[in-house]
Design brief:
The chain starts with a strand and ends with a strand. The chain folds into three domains: 124 residues, Immunoglobulins (Immunoglobulin-like, Sandwich); 84 residues, Immunoglobulins (Immunoglobulin-like), CATH 2.60.40; 79 residues, Immunoglobulins (Immunoglobulin-like, Sandwich). The longest helix is centred in the last third of the chain and has 6 residues. It has one helix and 29 strands. It is mainly β.
Length: 345
């Protein structure tokens, strides 16, 4: 099936009859395809499972693969997600369910990669729902159906245990990549120079990990673990890095917002006392400017004029910015113009 203009084109094969309920799931993940390039997708029908339990304390369902496929000698999907849907709609429950916890236990050969083993919800009112999730991976040491459990407890409506299983193929590599990726800036004024970094850690395999970067602005893609890119036009851009090692592939994405507004200009940051404070001088420091220290907003600021701002706080400021320790200061004007500067005293 492919999309052209405003029409979806697909082929229907008649004669297929389902003796029970059937459904499909549609999701969107953006890719940029240049002239002459192509991209292939595989859709596996029947590899996911949803088990619903309406018993107290909460109506619950687990959504996860029921088996892993072997594609080009590599188990897929691996890692895979286990999602737990909770709803306060169980029969007889008419009050808020409080003190909710969900603890996952994985079988031998599986590792939890993302999501705390025990996740909590303080309270869930009648008719409300919530979604918890974990990311797990198998090392392939145990084949066949592998059972995991999720223990759901509450303070006022009882407890229960859910079970799910995923079938692991016996003759397939369990190689997978655990990918971490960051961007040095999430927003800023154009032109915005951003440094990117990615680390793909292979498990159950070895070799050199390759990286492919799409910066989301239509520019040329880049390779390597630590590229830099300058956004020259205002807009919101989604960047994506894809890491690969043979048939093992994974990706991470993030968002960068680039503003048209001119940035504040920081000429000097200096320490002053008493009480302990920093005096910032420059230009285009607008009334209402926000100051962030290592991405945490510092609310004790005093705007003096377009050329001067004071960052106050006394002992708390001194503790946040100790002597000799470099901190990143971000200055954000009300019109969206911003600039960052690393400084120590």
């Amino acid at each position: 099936m492919f999309h052209g203009s405003d029409t979806f084109y697909y082929t229907v094969t008649p004669g297929n009859d389902f003796t029970s309920d059937s459904c499909y799931n549609v999701y969107w993940e953006g890719y940029t395809i240049g002239p002459g390039q192509s991209i292939s997708f595989s859709t596996y029908y029947g590899l996911g499972g949803i088990a619903v339990d309406t018993n107290p304390p909460l109506t619950s369902s687990i959504s996860a693969p029921v088996e892993l496929n072997c594609e080009s000698g590599i188990m897929t999907p691996n890692p895979f997600d286990i999602a737990l849907y909770l709803a306060n709609s169980a029969p007889g429950v008419t009050v808020a369910v409080t003190g909710i916890s969900a603890q996952i236990s994985l079988p031998s050969g599986m590792t939890l990669l993302a999501g705390s083993p025990t996740q909590t919800i303080a309270s869930l009112d009648p008719g409300k729902d919530a979604l918890l999730s974990w990311t797990a991976a198998t090392n392939g040491s145990q084949a066949g159906p592998q059972t995991y459990t999720i223990q759901i407890n509450s303070s006022n409506a009882g407890n229960k245990t859910l079970r799910g299983a995923v079938a692991i193929p016996s003759t397939c590599s369990a190689c997978f990549l655990n990918l971490a990726a960051t961007a040095s800036k999430a927003s800023g004024s154009k032109p915005l120079a951003v440094s990117f970094s990615a680390t793909g850690s292979p498990t159950n395999c070895s070799g050199t990990v390759a990286y492919d970067w799409d910066f989301g602005d239509g520019s040329a893609r880049a390779a390597g673990a630590a590229p830099t890119h300058t956004y020259t036009e205002a807009g919101t851009y989604i960047w994506t890095v894809t890491a690969s090692l043979g048939a093992a592939v994974t990706s991470k994405s993030g968002t960068i917002v680039v503003s048209n507004a001119p940035p504040p200009v920081i000429a000097l940051i200096k320490k002053a006392a008493p009480p302990f404070k920093f005096v910032v001088t420059g230009s285009n420091l607008q009334n209402g400017i926000k100051v962030f220290i290592d991405d945490v907003e510092w609310t004790n600021t005093a705007w003096k004029n377009t050329g001067k701002v004071q960052i106050t706080g006394g002992a708390s400021l001194k503790a946040a910015v100790p002597r000799g320790v470099a901190r990143t200061f971000r200055f954000l004007n009300p019109d969206g113009g911003e600039v960052t500067q690393t400084w120590s005293w």
